[in-house]
């Protein structure tokens, strides 16, 4: 049997997820038991699998023969679709374990609907009604849960509401024959909305599309009981538009071949302080990595699981370069501008450390050259098979704000995201503007098509001196990478790029 564990970062220990069934007398077992856990792109979710030869009915693992173990991350499994690893066990050749991952979702469809009302009951004494629709899905016990409410349309008995989209899972939990209830109310400012009428239908019935079969009588049961046979309805609700389409998730793209590429850009301006001084943000403390090294490790350790080659371009900006002292805002940390790739996160850190003592920290703080560097690669890979992340780590106030803004606006149409980690205690107000969460970024009258920038101040993650560096890494990486899946999906959706087709069995 296999015992699965997940690493609890808060408690810094392994927690058992569960155990497979026992497959008796077999050296090539295929286990039926699955383990369900939440997946977070922005976290390093460490997993461990231990294999045992079961000798009795005892739950005590020491009573069974240990055959081997393997550790990995959920990111590695997701990225590989099927991850094969040699077991680390008591024998030289302890065998192989194959781990697969599949997103658990019974329904990935989204429905877009639009409705209008005709001849609705007048509820306001001095004017016409202000109608809106409430839509609820039925449960097995006959109760209903509200899943959507339309906007209110003022002073009309013949409203046309805006179209809206909702996951099929939300409106009927994937069951096309489950009852859906529509209620029409007249909006009142005091919240005591007047009931106009209701009807029920199903998604299967709605899927017929606009027509005579999807015109519904809005019925007010109290009014019907009061008026008797003279009551016909309280108006009609008509379906105007119906469309069902597949919702594609971040994992759909990753598991079907979209590659994530990360470029690191490090600030070598003089405002960081002399690297030899303990007060410098670049100071190499033998007991605790500096903010630059921490950010590289925290993000790199997550990203590397999604890059099979594990080769990362690493750039620097704001330094005088040997031997002629030319100031550069886009230079390779490994000294090779034709091939700025470093091997793994370790290679990036080594190149960063070497550069610290070979260049002269100078200035100013210009972002645009590094943004444009990555944008050139992203511009040549727009088919959805590649997505680029630029991590900028900086201490200073941007000195080329107009050029940086223009570079970001131009890059917003590309498969690209920009993460800025601000270190030190500078005023990072300009970074918040670039983030674009509150006000859409624009340059020369042109607005950014997508929000592609995430700014994170490192000081929010400093923690206490006694805090474990691993927990600092985990919290920083979560904050830094949280928006990446949604930004990737926004690019794919805007460009109508579907995940690549699943390879057919027997085909490459």
Automatic annotation (TrEMBL):
Repeat is among the record's keywords: yes
Protein name, as recorded: Copine-8-like isoform X2
Domain C2: 1-87, 91-216
Gene Ontology cellular component list: plasma membrane
InterPro entries assigned: C2_dom, C2_domain_sf, C2B_Copine, Copine, Copine_C, VWF_A, vWFA_dom_sf
Organism: Biomphalaria glabrata (Bloodfluke planorb)
Lineage, uppermost ranks: Eukaryota, Metazoa, Spiralia, Lophotrochozoa, Mollusca
CDD domains listed in its UniProt record: C2A_Copine, C2B_Copine, vWA_copine_like
Cross-referenced Pfam families: C2 (PF00168), Copine (PF07002)
GO molecular function, one term: calcium-dependent phospholipid binding
SUPFAM superfamilies, per the entry: C2 domain (Calcium/lipid-binding domain, CaLB) (SSF49562), vWA-like (SSF53300)
GO biological process: cellular response to calcium ion
Similarity annotation: Belongs to the copine family.
Keywords: Calcium, Metal-binding, Repeat
């Amino acid at each position: 049997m296999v015992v699965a564990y997940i690493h609890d970062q808060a408690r810094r220990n392994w927690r058992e997820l569960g155990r497979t069934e026992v497959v008796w007398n077999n050296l090539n077992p295929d286990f039926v038991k699955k383990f369900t856990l939440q997946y977070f792109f922005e976290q390093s979710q460490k997993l461990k699998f231990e294999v045992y030869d079961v000798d009795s009915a005892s739950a005590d693992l020491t009573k069974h023969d240990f055959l081997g173990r393997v550790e990995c991350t959920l990111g590695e499994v997701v990225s590989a679709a099927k991850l094969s690893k040699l077991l680390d066990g008591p024998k030289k050749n302890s065998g192989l374990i194959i781990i697969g991952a599949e997103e658990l979702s019974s329904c990935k469809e989204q429905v877009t609907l639009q409705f209008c009302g005709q001849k609705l009951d007048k509820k306001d004494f001095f004017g016409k009604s202000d109608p809106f629709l409430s839509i609820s899905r039925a449960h097995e016990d006959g109760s209903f849960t509200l899943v959507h409410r339309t906007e209110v349309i003022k002073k009309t008995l013949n409203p046309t509401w805006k179209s809206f989209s909702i996951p099929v899972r939300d409106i009927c939990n994937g069951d096309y024959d489950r009852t859906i209830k529509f209620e029409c109310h007249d909006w009142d400012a005091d919240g005591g909305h007047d009931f106009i009428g209701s009807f029920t239908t199903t998604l299967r019935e709605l899927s017929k599309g606009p027509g005579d079969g999807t015109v519904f009588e809005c019925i007010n049961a109290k009014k019907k009981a009061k008026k008797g046979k003279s009551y016909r309805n309280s108006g009609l609700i008509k379906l105007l538009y119906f469309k069902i389409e597949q919702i594609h998730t971040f994992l759909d793209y990753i598991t079907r071949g979209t590659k994530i590429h990360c470029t690191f850009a490090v600030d070598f301006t003089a405002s960081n302080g002399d690297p030899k001084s303990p007060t410098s943000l670049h100071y190499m403390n033998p007991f605790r990595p500096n903010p630059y090294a921490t950010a590289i490790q925290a993000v790199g350790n997550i990203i590397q699981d999604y890059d099979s080659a594990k080769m990362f371009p690493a750039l620097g900006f704001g330094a005088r370069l040997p031997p002629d002292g030319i100031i550069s805002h886009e230079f390779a940390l490994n000294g090779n501008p034709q091939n700025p790739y470093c091997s793994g996160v370790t290679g990036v850190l080594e190149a960063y450390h070497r550069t610290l003592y070979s260049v002269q920290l100078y200035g100013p703080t210009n972002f645009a050259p590094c943004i444009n560097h990555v944008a050139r690669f992203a511009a040549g890979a727009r088919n959805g098979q590649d997505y680029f992340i630029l991590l900028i780590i900086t201490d200073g106030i941007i000195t080329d704000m107009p050029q940086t803004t223009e570079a970001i606006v131009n890059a917003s149409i590309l498969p690209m995201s920009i993460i800025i980690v601000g270190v030190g205690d500078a005023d990072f107000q300009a970074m918040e503007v670039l983030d674009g969460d509150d006000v859409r970024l624009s340059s020369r009258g042109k607005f950014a098509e997508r929000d592609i920038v995430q700014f994170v101040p490192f000081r929010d993650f400093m923690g206490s001196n006694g805090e474990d560096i691993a927990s600092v890494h985990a919290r920083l990486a979560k904050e830094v990478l949280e928006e990446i899946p949604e930004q990737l999906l926004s690019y794919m959706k805007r460009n109508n790029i579907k995940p690549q087709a699943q390879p057919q069995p027997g085909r490459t």
